[in-house]
Each structure stands twice: as structure tokens, then as C-alpha cells.
Amino acid sequence: MGISRRDFLMRVGQAGGYSAAFTTMQSLGLMPMKASAATPIAAAAGVGKGTKLVVLGGGIAGLVTAYEARKLGYDVTVLEARHRPGGRNWSAKNGDVVEFIDGTKQNVTWSEGLYQNMGPARLPSVHGTILGYCRELKVPLEVQVNTSRSSFLQNDAVNGGKPYVQRQAVNDTRGHVSELLSKAIKGGALDQDITVEDRQRMIAFLRIYGPLDRTNVYKGSDRALIKQYPGAGSQEMIIDAETVPMHTLLDANFWTGMLYEEAWDWQATMMEPVGGMAQIPYAFAKSLGPIVVYDAPVTEIAKTPKGVKVTYTKAGATKTIEADYAVCAMPLTILRKIKADLDADHKRVVDTAVYRGSYKIPWESKRFWETDYNIYGGLSFMAQGPNPVWYPSCNLMAERGIIVSGYQDDSYENFAALTLEEKFAKSRAQVEKLHPGHGKDLEKPVFCGWRQVKWNEGSWIGGIPQKDYNILTSPDGPIYFAGDHTSHVVGWQEGAATSGRRAIEMISDKVKAAKA
Amino acid sequence: MGISRRDFLMRVGQAGGYSAAFTTMQSLGLMPMKASAATPIAAAAGVGKGTKLVVLGGGIAGLVTAYEARKLGYDVTVLEARHRPGGRNWSAKNGDVVEFIDGTKQNVTWSEGLYQNMGPARLPSVHGTILGYCRELKVPLEVQVNTSRSSFLQNDAVNGGKPYVQRQAVNDTRGHVSELLSKAIKGGALDQDITVEDRQRMIAFLRIYGPLDRTNVYKGSDRALIKQYPGAGSQEMIIDAETVPMHTLLDANFWTGMLYEEAWDWQATMMEPVGGMAQIPYAFAKSLGPIVVYDAPVTEIAKTPKGVKVTYTKAGATKTIEADYAVCAMPLTILRKIKADLDADHKRVVDTAVYRGSYKIPWESKRFWETDYNIYGGLSFMAQGPNPVWYPSCNLMAERGIIVSGYQDDSYENFAALTLEEKFAKSRAQVEKLHPGHGKDLEKPVFCGWRQVKWNEGSWIGGIPQKDYNILTSPDGPIYFAGDHTSHVVGWQEGAATSGRRAIEMISDKVKAAKA
Q1: A255 vs B205: CB contact, 8 Å cut-off?
Q2: pLDDT per residue as tens digits for the range B125-155
Q3: Going from the N-terminus, what domains does chain A have, and what CATH number goes with each?
Q4: Are the Cβ atoms of A488 and B231 closer than 8 angstroms?
Q5: Does the interface ipTM go beyond 0.85?
Q6: Which of residues 45-104 of A touch B (CB under 8 A)?
Q7: How far apart are CA B181 and CA B430, in angstroms?
Q8: Cβ <8 Å between B25 and A499
Q9: What is the pTM of this model?
């Protein structure tokens, strides 16, 4: 199940890869998903004419649903509880407020021009659907740096808690692996597995792969730790031949931190909109205009003989809207609090779905990571405490920036139980571990814990049984469901966008069948 | 010798890493070179007051020399043969001309807003000196994408010439290596090398590193080839379990292409100035103002009792300038054509130094690599023909862009001997190999072969014996030498910048000693 994918990426120490037990076996071959433009919906032009649609929730799934519905001629309205579009796609900046369900309010007071993507913050180049919308809506993109070889891996239990720079950990690991394999091959251990001809070629390959010296031993390289960078005149490069022993690397258990960058949705190139991820929902909202009604929380969803009736409040008044179909694109954590005319199966799934509580703790700071560490974007992974530390990709070389120290589930190390001040102290201490003397540079922290954020009450859906997923992805009469929780790309805008397209395709099939 | 470093990066199949025989043993520890700002020159404030300096050549080395000299109070003039600063640092655009020494002129006629960095095109985050100047001169930077997992590796002799996407080649290679090493460890082949405890931990590690399945076999993963990307509803991810066999990967000899990204000066994060690399020399030139004299080719360098006399032409007239010191920051290929009052050693080195003839062939095209291949920046490496294909990092998702097909030495496959039309045909064919049907999309090619470019006649210095390097980096009386050829970072702006700083430090030492 793709459902657990997001959680996988949040955890350390699990084996990579998906189950191979897949239901669909459609080969697309070498060619990846295209991002040439939002490809047309699989529905006839004008199919929606004369059909009224109401979309509940103006996050990415709801916005995509409405955007595609309008293209097909539907009369569509989006009801959004907040005063802004985007849902979790939120680029917080000065003047914004993080509002929790318990009434806690944190004011964002960062310097002009600074922002933090509190929800989605990356656009993988293989997420062709959401990128297609960026292209279609002309949202300017810049590169999001997910990998920096200057960032760190750190474990309190290893090296006295001192971090290793990623270029050393990554390259020393490959060096040791190559040396061991070279030795095994030369010793004849793999004679049954490798032909005589390939044995020599493997050894030649491992010399470059490691790299190994002429005796097939790994002694560091310019890829790993450099004692002295080269310069003019007699200043030559000096490589550190003191590599981190494999035993230490095994102790450190750094490998998941190292290999994140190879996961399909974390591989280079990744992108982000210039000015913040929220440029995407704002671009949809600008296109949709009055179709999106803000400050309009839904209070009831009822089935009627001809479709649905949705009750909501707006400026203190109770209002209703009748439609042929509804697409429910709000979190199940919010839906379950609304009086909704759902069948028993759907009601059970909505009520019992488990949500995660991922958080981010962004701080304003001068950019010491750039000036003193040559870190321009990327992540430092830490084995204990709030993790990772995430450096900004935007506005490189500006005076100040927003650094995230801690982006994980609030259940980890019982973080949810701490007071805000305790959370901030732990978050600051992580930066101090990596960048001694710079913990004090951090200012104006915000704890955006999605489990507590009003109108969300969760970061994304956790594991869900296949049976329940099948129910959730099937309509309940005129009520359809969208959102990343109805996709195999949970916690990503790609999942939300594809789910909105799927909902409108399913509705269009039904509309077409009814007309035939 | 760093001298050969640049050449190393241009060649395929050599083992990585430097000679460990270094002369200086100054440990800088974990902390990399800082880019906090251009650090002050090691010279007393005002040391240059009353001293006249002439700098020959307005490339990065000459500009840095003049910029630092002015800070120290020197009366400084830069003579530049061209009508622009920067030398090889040139962002060619519509209206520019590639002018060869044989009189050939190629007009650049690309669409508005498009440009190509014909010389340096990358700023590694560990090149702290040149980045420090970017910071000091407020040159806006963006990320330069050096690695894209969506780009290709291709070899005519393997897979019927069809390219492999890098995510598959890179990750299948690690998968096979991990499987083989796991098998060797389990078979006891490395019992002498790995403790009992570590053996189990190595096997657990290799399961993630590979990744391997529970039987320690590599069967692909989401890191490598994906047949179907996940989406909404029932659309789950389908991984291609048909991995590229190790035997094929060995045949393909892809590893250098794979491992470039780990070289110290190719590692993420890399950057580039917004609007082109030439923003750097233009920022220096703006700061220096009338200190830089353009269209002023030097014709003679003479020693005088009190220093040097330099003859140059300007607007048809012959002019001279007298100074206490000269810093010669022009290519040795140009210097050797000038009547220069050098001692026998320096003259010999200048006359005999071997230069490389690297070229780039940029084309204008619609961005099919983005729309159809999800390639946003990065490089595709090819085993035969002009190589690599380099995709632009700037203006992602714009309609059109500049793609480079061929960036290597003109001696490779005797490329220099071909006519321009033959070169362009070969260059276009490379794109067609990787992106069938798109060769025809390429328009308006330019062959920027630095061996033939007027005022350069070479891309960078080739190998140079240590004895000759020692001569070149020592002054000849009042004449000092700067340029990346007097550094261990040949072919990079970092080498040029550090060489300019070194020249002015050496001169300041002499000035101070003379005053004492």
C-alpha cells in the first residue's frame, strides 16, 4: 500500500522498497510520467453541462477537482473553511498565525521576505501531474536542494556525538564496501557467481567505484574528507586518509539518512515554487475566482432524492447548497466531526482512520550554515531528538533565512507531551549539536504540529487496511472522496491532484451513463 | 598536480583521486573553506599607496587582482583586449559573436532571454573564494543542477545503443554490489576481515544499501526503474524487477559517468549566477569602473629600471603605461605571441606550456527534455561521440532553452578536424540517440572551441611539469603571473581568484620589505 509510503520516509532503519504484490500490471517502459501539461481528463468535452457539483475543502485535491470540473462544463462551488486556499499547502510568513484546536495561537513574526512551507515543500520531477499544473498555471519554479554533501549525519552514540559530514560518510561507506567486495572476489569467494572475465572487470570497476588504490584498498579520496582545499601556487589538495571505519559506520546506522536521496520521490531534481509552495493553490484560486467560497465551514452533508444538500456557515449565517454530486476533499479527521449522511461502511472508515501528527519547527536565523559550513539547502540527519535539520533552498546568500530543526511525527520520543518551550529547547539543541555556538542564533520559533492545527487535526493518513481503502475510494451514492488519502502517494500534492482528477473522471462516467 | 585535475574530469575510465604526495601538510579539519565573505588579503592596510600596478588581462584572475589591489591602496590599471570583462567567463546571448583566430565568425541568434555559459558554468559550494566574491558583490545565485536521476547513460555497444536512465544504472549497480558482498560474507569469505558481530550488521546494512530482499537478493527497488508511478485509487507503484545485469553494467563502463557527481568539485550543492556566469565579471567591472581599459590588447612588456613598461593599442593608437609591477593574467597562449622581456626560464615555460581545446556546442530548442523526460538540469553521459549532453538549470519550465550537446576536448575522436557542419551533425545525432525524434528540434548551434577562440587559443593549461609550475608561480623581476594556470584548481574560477589574491599578496610582501 502506498498509504504507508510517507510513514516509511519518516522512519529510520527500515528496509527500502515496496511489496511486489501489485494488482495492476501496466508497463510504461522507460518513459516516465510526462509533465508536458495537465493531460486532459478522460471525459468527453462538455460532459458536465447542466450538472451541479459541490466540492468540500479547498486544498490541492479540492482545487484540482473544481479546476477540472469547470473545464468539463460543470457548475461547481468549493466550500473552504479557512480564509485561504491550499490546506496543508501553506507558506507561513510574517502576520500569519498557527492556530491549534486547543486555542493556542502562535504568531509568525519573521523578517520581510522569509517564509516556511509548513506542509509540502518539495516537487519531485517525476510528480508529473502537479508539475503539469504548475506549467499550465505558470507558477515559476526553482530548484529545491534535497541533497547537499556538506550537510551532516549525527548520532549521539558515535564519534562523541560529533557529526560526520555527508560527503565523508557516503563515500567512506562505498569505499569500504568496494574494498571488501574486491577482496572477496580476489580470494575466489564468488567464483561461482562471476565469470573469469567479469572478475577482472569487477575489480577494475571497484577501483573506480570505491575508489580503491592500486592494491585495492580504500584510503579516502577527494570525494570524502579534504583536509586542505587546493588553491594558488603551492597550495595543493590534501585528502584525509583517515577514513571512518566500517565498524563505526555500522554503529552509526547512518544508511537510511544516506539513502533517502535515492528514493523515487526524493531523487534529484526536485523543485519548489519561487516565493513558496502556496503559489500553487493561489494560482488555482486565482483561476477559479468566485467558485471558491472562503470562511465557509461545512456543518452538514445530506443525501437528497436528486443528489446532495450541504449546509455551511458564512459570516455567522447558516447557508445551504444543493448539488447533483459532492466531492469530499477534506481530511477525514474533520469530516468525522460533521453530521454526514454516510452509509455504515464509509462512516466506519471515516471514523476510524488513523492520522499521523508530523510537525515542523522553523526558526529565523542568520545563514551561518552557508557562511561557515558551505551548506546551501539539503538536510542533516540525526539519530536522536527532533530530526532532520533542513536548510533553505530559496534566497541563497541572503542575510537571513528560515531553518527547520525537527520535521517528524510528534509520537517520536513522546514529543507531543512536551510544552512548546520544551519543544523549542530540544529543537535548538539539535542545531547546537551540528553547528556549535549557533544554537543562540535561532529566533522566533514556531511549532506547526499538524495534529493540533485547526481544520486539519493530522498531517496525513497512516496505514489503512486494503478493505477500508477500497471503501474510501468508492463513492457513497452522490458523495465522492478525494484527497491524498485516496491515493498511493500519501502526503504529497501528487496524490491529492491525481485523486481530484480521478473523482471527476468517475463522476463524469456516471453523468454520461445517466444521459445515455 | 591540480593541473591535471580538469583533464581528469574530461576523461572517462581513469581511477579517481589525487596522488597522495603532497608538499604542504596543513590540516583544516572538518570545517570546510568558508564563504562568509572574501577574507581579507594577507597584507597591511594601505600597503599599496604610492605603488603603480598594471594588470594584463581582465578575466577573473585579473579582475580579482585589481579589486584586491585597489583595497590596499595601489594605483591599478587593467588592460583587456576584448570589449568586455571575464575572458572565458562569457554568457553568450543574441547578438554575440564567437570569433576564431582563422577569421571564422559565428553569430549567436538565440531567442530573447536565452544564454549559454561558454566557459565556467558551475560554482561548487566548496569554492569559498569565488563564492565569497559573489556574496561581497551581491551577485544573485541560483542552484545549478549537476545531478538528475532522470538523465541518461548511453553506450552504442550496449543495450542496442538505447540509453539507461541514471536512476536505474546507479541503483542497479549498488544493488548488485550489495548482493555479491552479502553473499561473500554469508559464505565466510571475509571472516578474517569482519568480526562475528559486524557480519550480521553488514548483512542488515546491505539489505538497505542494496536494497536487497529478505533472501539478500537484489530485485530492483523504487530507486531504480518504475514501470508505473503510483496515483489515485487503485493505481499502485509497479517496480521493474528486471534489473540491468552486472555483466551489462560492466560492459557499459558507465561508472565514471555515475561517479562524477561525487567528485569534490562536482558535489551538490552547486550554484550559478541568475542570468549567467558573466554576472560575476560584470559585477567586478562595475565596481572597478575606469580601472579596466577595454579594447586594449597588449603588444609589448618591457622591464625598466623602476619596474615595467607595457605597450598596448587603443582605438588604433599605440599607448604605453609604466608601473612598478605587472601582473600577467592572460593565457600563456596569448602571452607567447607578445614581445615580452622575460628571463629564459619563464620564456621557455610560457612558450612550451600545452593547452587543452575544450569546446561546447549549445543549441536552442523547445524543452522536450523537461516536458517529455522530466529532466530538469543535469547531464547525460555517452560513451561515443560528443559528450555529455547538458540540460539547463535556469528558467525551468520556460518554453525554450539552451541545451549543450558536446563539452569535451577537440582532440577526442579527432573532432577538431571536422567542418562546422560535420560537428553540428554529430552533436545533433547525440541528442537523437538519447531523445529519439528530438534531434530535429535543435536550432542555431554554435561551436565554441576555445582552442580557436580569439584572445584565448586554449581552454585551460594541460599537464605541466612540477619544475615548470614552480617557475610559472614565481615572479620574473617585477612581473608576476596569475590565472587558473598558476593554481591547483585549473579550469575553475576558484583557481583564477586564488591566484589573483596570491599575486597581490606576494607583491605586497615585496612592497613592504622595500619600504622597511
Answers
A1: yes
A2: 999 999 999 999 999 999 999 999 999 999 9
A3: 2-13+45-82+278-355+461-515 (3.50.50.60), 91-151+269-274+358-449 (3.90.660.10), 160-252 (1.20.1440.240)
A4: yes
A5: yes
A6: none
A7: 36
A8: no
A9: 0.93
